[in-house]
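Morning, I've got a small favour to ask if you have a moment. I'm working through a protein record and want to make sense of it properly. The fold is given in discrete form, as structure tokens running alongside the sequence. Can you walk me through what the tokens say about the fold? Thanks so much in advance, here it is:
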Amino acid sequence: MNDKKTTKKDLQVQPRWSWRTDIPLVWLVVLAAISMPRTIMHDLRIIPLDSGLYTALAAVPLLIYLAVAILRKNKRPFYDFLVIGLLFGLFLAVTHQLTWSASWGDSPPKIGGNLEGMLDPLLETFVLRFFTFTSSVMTGLTFGTIF
């Protein structure tokens, strides 16, 4: 017979998977948001793309992500950075949507090729904005996957 005593800890059901990350929510948001100044500057054409400031705004967040990936001990680093990437992608998508009119001015993008002029202008704008949103989220997830 087994004489081992069952403890309260033995009876607790341990979840196999959790939505929680090892990085606190505040830090997830901060890490995702540090790339937004470059996005805003780019969308509003505030600084030239070939300037040192633009390069710094693009490179510094990536270096911070790399430092966090290397220096922080996480149980599930891939998942944590996937969440950061998702948040970054959502921030990117929302920023692009909010700056759409200011970014494009009087010459908004148009669908070309075989579909040129085939869609109602309102539907065309919706389609372009939808794909921009989706592309931004995928960009964020790609960055999260890489890191």
In short: The chain has a mean pLDDT of 84. The CA atoms of residues 19 and 79 lie 9 Å apart. Residues 121-146 form the longest helix (26 residues).
